[in-house]
Amino acid sequence: TLQPTECFLSQPEEKPETTTIKAKRRKKKTISDVLQKSAPKPGVPADLQNLLSQHFAGNRSVIEMEELKLSDSCFLPANDLSHSFSSYLKEICPKWAKLRRNHKEKKSVVMLVICSSALRSLELIKSMTAFKGDCRVLKLFAKHIKIKEQMNMLEKGVFHIGVGTPGRIKVLVEQDGLCLSSTKYMILDWNWRDQKLRRMMDIPEIKKETIDLLEMSIIKLCREGSVKLGLF
Known about the structure:
Layout: H1 2-28, H2 31-37, H3 45-56, H4 62-67, H5 85-92, H6 96-102, E1 111-114, H7 118-127, H8 129-132, E2 137-140, H9 147-156, E3 161-164, H10 166-174, E4 185-188, H11 204-224, E5 228-231
Protein name: CMS1 protein
Region (Disordered): 1-42
InterPro entries: Cms1, P-loop_NTPase
């Protein structure tokens, strides 16, 4: 008869211990803690849709929320974490050579790649060499490059791919330096993590600027079917 009571006694003793550990963890619970416990999960379209609905919930009407919804047909296949950047782009855009040849418009790009920093932009530009062929790539970030320079380049030449940060791209669109009517692909550098293990959507400023850019024009273009979104 003593055994069950012993069992009962030992359980409450364990509980406070585990809850205090949990409480401690909950207080800290940085991204690195979470990652150490689980393998990184590749981003899927639902992640972006949830992010948008969380961001706008509470300050938008039901109708406005409907207009911000993206159906699965707006998305390209997401990166399952097995791809290099070039191999991912080749998979989602098999007709790139033809698209590149047909693109003649100034002030625009066929593909926009959005990431969290100037440094990451340069990395991505390097790692798309096998995909891009002889097309022209424009750096669209703020570090060391004046906005006037970027506007001049867009006005004078034909560029196929723009790689940069959401803040600078948003300003270029607002100031009519970059027109999105020829853009067919928008790739978000979704899964990559910086030294602090943050993805672009874990950095509040980058997240807000990305959502602003999406809301400003990209969501409408996706819903009309002219732009497809990819999560790399």
